[in-house]
Amino acid sequence: MQDPTARSDRDTGRVEVKNTTCYMCACRCGIRVTLRDGEVRHIEGNPEHPLNKGIICAKGASGIMKQYSPARLSKPLLRKKRGERGQSEFEEISWEQAFDLMAERLGRIRAEDPKQFALFTGRDQMQALTGMFAKQFGTPNYAAHGGFCSVNMAAGLIYTIGGSFWEFGGPDLDRAKLFVMIGTAEDHHSNPLKKSLSEFKRKGGRFISINPVRTGYSAIADEWVPIRPGSDGALLLAINNEIIKQGLFDRDFIINYTNAAELVINEPEREDHGLFKRVEMHYEEGCFDPQNKLWWDRELDIPMGTQTPGCEPRLLGEYQMEDGTQVKPAFQLLVESLEKYTPEWAAGITGIPAATIRRLAHEMGVVARDQKIELPIPWTDAWGNEHNSVVGNPVAFHSMRGLAAHSNGFHSIRALGILMTLLGTIDRPGGFRHKAPFPRPIPPCPKPPKGPEAVQPNTVLDGMPLGWPADPNDLFVDEQGEAVRIDKAFSWEYPLSVHGLMHNVITNAWRGDPYKIDTLLLFMANMAWNSSMNTENVRKMLTDKDENGDYKIPFVIVADTFQSETVAFADLVLPDTSYLERHDAMSMLDRPISEYDGPVDSVRIPVVEPKGQCKPFQEVLIELGSRLKLPAFVKDDGSRKFKNYPDFITNYETSPGSGIGFLAGWRGKGGEKFLKGEPNPRQWEMYARNNCVFHYELPKSYQYMRNWNKGYLEWARAHGMTRYAEPINCHIYSEVLQKFRLAAQGKRPGKQPPERLRKRIESFFTPLPYYFETLESQLVDTREYPLTALTQRPMAMYHSWDSQNAWLRQIHTHNYLFVNPLLGKSQGFNDGDWVWVESAINKVRCMCRFSEAVEPGTVWTWNAIGKAAGAWGLSEKANESQKGFLLNHVIREELPPCEAGEHMSNSDPVTGQAAWFDTRVKVYKAKDDEPRISAPQFSGHKRVPGQDPKRGKWQGYMAGLFRKKMNLFD
Fold first, then answer.
1. CB of 423 closer than 8 Å to CB of 364
2. Does residue 915 contact residue 410 with C-beta atoms inside 8 Å?
């Protein structure tokens, strides 16, 4: 094999193999790319990569067709002076012109009012850099895709157990005996999860899938439990109730490692009702749980400090302190809150029989109790107690967007976190395991700005664009309690919106609520199609003008690799590189690919030259930061600090002399240090020689119980993973939520919600999870719209990026609406018929397919296969636009007017998570005389300058081979 760092020599015709990291999806698998004459010929998995271990899926193997896609953009473009948005009327400009234009416009904005610039990014892997750019610019209006993806999962679990599924934690299938998957798309964590599942099943593990749809992973489940969408919380609360009633919870675990035994003030008339009773003692301020709370000792019948040696706390009961204060253990409050959530009650909501719910609870509890795993690994807990082994309760869970993308998703996920905690599966063998840099304090330390004064001209933002509120006083609101951000994140409308509300940016900016903006920069975000709810109206907003004939959103910049539907609506188009053409870092400061045994980060190194004039968006930000003289990008004298993006990654430190940068491997001047050390000028080279991956394996004694593992916590603090080495107890009871509730009740000093939102906050910010019907179902006529409509990604495609891929299109050229045959029978249509899917706001026409693998009250389709005619380099008559359809057209972005306001986002009221999966619809047969094409249809997108419809020479060769093979069958 050739040296993987060698450059391609186009003149010799030699074959080369280079290692890099894939980016077909968020898995970020290691790959090996074969080139001939400088062109990609073959992509395979890298067997030496720790994440995928050589496994590759259809998306990864077909990257060759993505690289040479006719949808590729290759030149900077400016909308013609007389051209209209949406018409793809562009002229070519140079990068120098583009930078001059942006620097002049953004420089003026920064000097006048930085929040007039909004930067929102899609599914990128460099949010540490884009967020840093926004902070340095001084705008609070920044977020990535998380708000419309799975912020409920992140917030719900991090505010409960200090970590979350996906990059930061997952199921330990190597040791689990029972695996329960809830609401996970069939391509989530694709290659690693497929490998783990196959090994789990071969070892005799039992796999239960709870999902309205049985596809992908669920197809190999030992048991499929169909559930009505949006009712997951009801199921989980009922299971929690049964676990407790049957005595199947891990009592020792919840006493020692959660706040279950801690005493809560139980006097509703008091201003501190629902808060923990604390001893009067000094403690250091910080974003950690002070160990100054109380247990009620069983033998002495008195309150004692938590973790007092010899204390045996009570979990149940009601007690009175010496000063007369009435208190209850948090566990008692949990028991009381769960009493009404019986299996019979849940059966009527979920569609799952009560007997099945009881059986599931019993099975989880018995496996956790009776099939324990003990590993001979000594460790020391945060209170100095020595343990000779690590014990695991081998029930593992995995869940993602299907559970999250509902307006009641936050509380559903809190219920899941509590279930895992009751079973004692947190960071133990066979259960949920953290991945560095998590666990982190509950909530993590970064905080958003506190008010409008944090945004000042020519000044770095005072606070983080995205943060983790711990208290109402952490909200980013003005003196009237109204939002300061354009998306209304961190306001009383969506207080814990830790990933922002990208899905509402265009609508709010168009309406001027809470204010108008000047420039919107979108990176990898297809907001004019599959990344928006109520897409048809969003497209109109992007072209809408005021009474002076000016666009209501004055200037839109789109940076993308491909001609997405959104490109047509841009004023300035910046052509990004493909993942095979650029340097990139999957950083510990961002979203790494860590393993359970320790931190892992990785890099992408270019294997081919950029197409045309494509420039990595990372380079664009470095250049803009330098031209605008943002402090992090220039020296004290104002001169440029970083030559380019690789130089930035090598030399940037989180603070002067911190030794912590974007990459953790091969630090120090000679690459002899890890995680922390001086910048190393040969760092990229060393990554390239090591499969583009750095993997640090923690000592065995640090690999489990990390929330309470003294050795790990001190190690994490020393290496910048966390600021404090304090224990991170699981929050069965959330005092954070109760503080917001008290503020809404007028019982807490400081920031107060506007009157219209007091009832909303009081209702939804309960310290223990509860079930409520999704907001859309509460506000629309569910008799008129009896079905719930869902979308999910297919295994072979990742959002809209891959459904323009020539090879993958042979798997899915268009999508269907999948329905249960019972629905067709009741509504008078057959398998394959054209039908209308209608919600209260819009309707789409599409073809249907019958499937027994769908819950009867659910209809669903693949996401983003349907395209607008002519977009993505496809023909206007391509199946993707003529037969394919986009369900987003019927998904409401805003709720019907209600007590909280006329324009409330269709989102979770706690986190702002887009409630994609709450959509209520009816389905009926299209008339026989209607056109057999999908609807709605839009004016065709034209190719833009720089798009090359010609195939490369080897592609022509392969097309010829294909034709020859087809002739064999004639």
1. yes
2. no
Q: Is 853 helix (H, G, I), strand (E, B) or coil?
A: coil
The dihedral through the CA atoms of 248, 254, 256, 261 has a sign that is negative
Cβ partners under 8 Å of residue 357, min gap 6: 235, 238, 239, 242, 343, 346, 347, 350
Q: Bin 216: left if φ > 0, else alpha if -120 < ψ < 50, else beta.
A: left
What is residue 797's predicted lDDT score, i.e. its pLDDT? 86
Distance CA 148, CA 532 (A): 9
In 746-789, where does DSSP find H-type helix? Answer: 755-764, 775-779
Longest dimension (CA), the chain: 93
Contact between residue 893 and residue 842 where contact means Cβ atoms under 8 Å apart: no
Angle between helices 617-627 and 95-112 (to 10 degrees): 50
Determine the Cα–Cα distance for residues 338 and 242; give it in Å rounded to an integer.
9
Measuring CA to CA, which residue among 909, 913, 829, 821 is closest to residue 533? 913
Q: Residue 23's pLDDT band (boundaries 50, 70, 90)?
A: low
Residue-level pLDDT at 970: 40
Would you state the pLDDT for residue 953? 55
**In this structure, what token pair is assigned to residue 748?**
């807490």
According to the 3-state scheme, what is the secondary structure of 483-544?
ECCCCCCCCCCCCCCCCCCHHHHHHHHHHCCCCCCCEEEEECCCCCCCCCCCHHHHHHHHHC
**Distance of alpha carbon 839 from alpha carbon 534, whole angstroms:** 11
Q: Cα separation of 550 and 85, whole Å?
A: 11
Question: Within 10 A of 899 (CB to CB), how many other CB atoms are there?
Answer: 9
* CA atoms of 725 and 164, how far apart (whole Å): 19
Question: Are 696 and 664 contacting, i.e. CB atoms less than 8 angstroms apart?
Answer: yes
Query: Which residues are registered as beta bridge partners of 43?
Result: 33
325's tokens: 């204060």
Q: Are strands 294-296 and 263-265 parallel, antiparallel or unpaired?
A: unpaired
Let me know if 384 is exposed, middle or buried by CB neighbors in 10 A (0-12, 13-18, 19+): exposed
Q: Round to whole Å and give the CA distance between 517 and 551.
A: 11
Cα–Cα distance for residue pair 832/932, rounded to 1 Å: 11
Rounded to whole angstroms, the Cα distance separating 275 from 625 reads 45
CA separation for the pair 805, 351 (Å, rounded): 39
Q: Token pair for residue 220?
A: 């190999």
Question: Left if phi > 0, otherwise alpha if psi is -120 to 50, otherwise beta: which for 249?
Answer: beta
**Rounded CA separation 859/107 (Å):** 49
Q: Between β-strands 395-399 and 206-210, what pairing exists: parallel, antiparallel or unpaired?
A: unpaired
For residue 832, with 0-12 CB atoms within 10 Å meaning exposed, 13-18 middle and 19 or more buried, which class applies? exposed
Return the residue matching tokens 């082994």.
389
* Whole-angstrom distance, CA of residue 135 vs CA of residue 446: 13
Give residue-wise pLDDT tens across range 457-491. 999 999 999 999 999 999 999 999 999 999 999 99
Measured between alpha carbons, how far is 80 from 240 in angstroms, rounded to an integer? 60
Let me know: does 533 contact 913? Beta carbons within 8 Å.
no
List, in sequence order, every residue forming a beta bridge with 379; answer none if it has no partner.
387
Q: What is the pLDDT of residue 189?
A: 81
Site of tokens 């905690």 = 421
671 contact partners, CB below 8 Å, separation of at least 6: 680, 682, 683, 686
Q: What is the rounded distance in angstroms from the CA atom of residue 500 to the CA atom of residue 295?
A: 37
Q: Cβ(330)–Cβ(260) under 8 Å?
A: yes
Mean pLDDT of 370-394: 97
Burial code of 617-647, b = ≥16 C-beta within 10 A, e = fewer? bbbbbbbbbbbbbbeebbeeeeeebbeebbb
